């Protein structure tokens, strides 16, 4: 396990954790479910850093107005928007849990099938 690595338990509990140091984990600890709580196991300390959100809790939109009307868990088609080579804003609303405002660098957008075609 590398320092600062983010992971989830083998048996999901709805939370993710960050290793505070490096080492070899032999067994999993009894994972805390309070954000900010820590637990140590096999010489590694883990911090509970956030909830894991299911797709049905997340709404994507190309503008802020769409966050109130788009379907939770639905894909966001930005195909035409990315043809110009400029950054495209994507709005995200998570409907479960309370989180502080801030910049989150661990949000990832998965593109399982990217289809490119000439216009």
From TrEMBL:
The protein's name in its UniProt record: Uncharacterized protein
